[in-house]
Amino acid sequence: MDIKKLVVFAILMEGSGGILSKSEDYVQEKFELANSCSEDWQLEQLLDQQNMAKFKKWLSIWTLSDRIAKVPAPEHKEDW
Prior knowledge:
Layout: H1 3-14, H2 24-36, H3 40-44, H4 49-69
Helix pairs in contact: 1-2, 1-4
């Protein structure tokens, strides 16, 4: 499962009392729905405005840190 799909699924599960308030059928339905999305815009359609803001914030935080992690560190401490 793509990480974005997993994050959308997690966001859907945390609302309205969290996963403990969700029926097995609801969890299965949302899992299959998120997993079946092949494009980002399809994932975004699963979220309301508040959850979309949360998803975009997650993307901005973790996409940036992913890019930073790929930048090689200088070989010498003096170069910092």
